[in-house]
Amino acid sequence: MTDTINKIQQADVVIIGAGFAGLTAARELRQAGLSVIALEARDRIGGRTWLDDRLGRPLEIGGTWVHWTQPYVWAEMKRYGVGTVQSPVPERAYWWAGGARHEGTPDQLLNEIDAPNRKLVEQSREYFPQPFAPFTNPDIKVIDHVSLPKKIAELEITDYSRDILESFWALNFNGPIDDAALTQALRWVALTNGDWTVNFEACATFKIQGGTGKLISGIGAGTDVRLGRTVSAVNCAGGKAIVTTTDGEEFQAAHVVCTLPLGALGAVTFEPPLPAPARKGISEGQASRGIKVWITVKGEVKPFVALGSAEWPLNFVQAEYEQDGNTILVAFGPDAGRLDPADIRQVQPAIDLLVPDLDVLDVASHDWTSDPLSGETWPMHRTGFLTESMGSFQQPHGPLLFAGSDYANGWGGFIDGAIESGLEAARGILNGRTA
Predict the structure, then answer these.
(1) Pairing relationship of beta strands 57-60 and 51-54 according to DSSP bridges
(2) Among 15-19, 100-104, 236-240, which is the least confidently predicted range?
(3) How would you class 166 by CB atoms within 10 Å of its CB: exposed for 0-12, middle for 13-18, buried for 19 or more?
(4) Residues 141 and 22 in one domain
(5) CB-count burial class (<10 Å; 0-12, 13-18, 19+) for 142
(6) What is the pLDDT of residues 225-248, one digit of tens each?
(7) Could you please report the per-residue DSSP string of 371-401?
(8) Per-residue pLDDT tens over the stretch 358-411
(9) DSSP per position, 325-343
(10) What are the DSSP calls for 41-105, one per residue?
C-alpha cells in the first residue's frame, strides 16, 4: 500500500531497479509486511537480463547461464519449479594462437587452456578460502593491485599459450584485460572449489528453462513496480530518504535499496555524498565493455565452439539453436567500440576470423555498454576495487543500501550474485542494519 501526501508518494522501502537484486529484496521485504515500491527506468523488469523475441525465437539478450554451484539462483529455480536447458555440446573447436588458426575437438581446446590457466589460478583457494566471504584472508590486499597481464607475464609460458590465456580471460571479463584484477579471476575460480573447468561450465552451459523472464516474473509477482521511472537523486540528509525521478516525481521511504550497476551510478546525485571509496569505484568503473551478439548463419551447422584473439572484434562464438533450417550462434567481443553488432557487413568478417565458411544472414544485439541504464555488461572488477571500494557498497549509508551483482560477495557478474545481494539488503533492513 502507498499513500500520496503533497504529491510525495510514500512506502516503507523504495527500491531502485527491478532486476533480480531489486525484485528479490522486494519480495523478502513484502513478505515481512513492509510496503515496497520498485522504480524501474526501463519499460520492463529484469535489468541486464532480457528475454526478447529476436531472429524468430526468444533469445537472452543479456544474462543467460546458471549452474548448480550457484546456490541462490538454484534455490530460486527450485522455489518456482524452473529447470534448466543445456546448450548444445560442441563437436568441433577452433582457436587462434601463435599466429594461426587451429582446429580440433573441444577437449583439445580445453587441454590447450588447462595447463597455463591452472598456473594462473592455482592460488584461488589460498586467497579465497571462503568464496562467499571474500575478505576472509587479509592477504588479498597484497595482490589486489596485480593485473592479469602482470600475472600472466610471470608464468613463463609460450606465446602460443599466452594468446589462448589472454583471449580466454578477455572473454570472461568481456573486456580488455589491461587492468583486470587478478583477484577477480581468483574469486571466480574459488567459487567452484578451485576448478576452472567447472567455472567455465557455469559460464556458458546451462540456461533457465523458459528463460530468465520466467524466473524474474515469479520473483517479482505482487511487487508494485513503476516502469519508466529514471531516478536522478537520492537525498538521505533528513533521516528518511527522498528519491526523485527525472520527471520530478518524489518518493519518501524509511529505507532505499539502490541496485543500479556501477556504470549507471554516476547519473544519480546522492546527498549526503557517498564516501570517497564508493565515489572512487564509480568514477573508475569496472572492466567489462564488450558485446554479446546473436547471429543467424545459413544452413544447419554442427555444434562448435571457437576462441579467437583477444584483439579481434569477436573472440568467442558457439552454436546455440537450429531455426528454420539455419543456425543461430551466440558470440562475444571484448570491446563494443570495435564492432557495430547490428551491421551484418561488420559481423561477417568478424565471424570469418573465428570460423571458416559461415554465411551471416541476420544479427541481434543490445549495446549494454552504451546504454546509460547499465554502462556495462556483466561486472568484472578492476585492480584495487575489491579492497578499496567494495566494502563501501556493502555498508549502509543511513537509510541507503546497495545491492546488485556488482557488489555481491559470491558470484558477482551472475544472476546468482544479484539474488544474493538482494537477500542481504533485505536482511539488513529487517535486522535493523542501517546507520
Answers:
(1) antiparallel
(2) 236-240
(3) buried
(4) no
(5) exposed
(6) 999 999 999 999 987 899 999 999
(7) -TTTSSSS--PBTTHIIIIIHHHHS-BTTEE
(8) 999 999 999 999 999 999 999 999 999 999 999 999 999 999 999 999 999 999
(9) TEEEEEEEES-GGG--TT-
(10) SSSSS-TT--EEEETTEEEESS--EE-TT-HHHHHHHHHTT--EEEPPPPSEEEEEETTEEEEE-
Give the type of residue at 375. Answer: G
Long-range contacts of 125-129 (CB under 8 A, 24+ apart): 125/190, 125/193, 125/194, 127/183, 127/186, 127/190, 128/186, 128/187, 128/190, 129/190
The one-letter amino acid code at 352 reads D
What range does the domain containing 261 cover? 3-48+211-286+376-430
| CA–centroid distance for 228 within its chain | 22
Dihedral angle sign, alpha carbons of residues 16, 23, 193, 318: negative
Alpha carbons within 13 angstroms on the beta-carbon side of residue 271 total 12
User: What is the distance between the alpha carbons of residues 403 and 394, in angstroms, rounded to a whole number?
Assistant: 8
Say which CATH number the domain at 143 has: 3.90.660.10
**DSSP 8-state symbol, 275:** P
Could you tell me the CATH number of the domain that includes residue 11? 3.50.50.60
Q: Which of 421, 428, 362, 377 is nearest to 400 (CA)?
A: 428
- Length of the chain, in residues: 435
Q: In the block, which residue shows the cell 523504495? A: 14
Does 387 lie in the same domain as 263? Answer: yes
Q: How many domains does the chain have?
A: 2
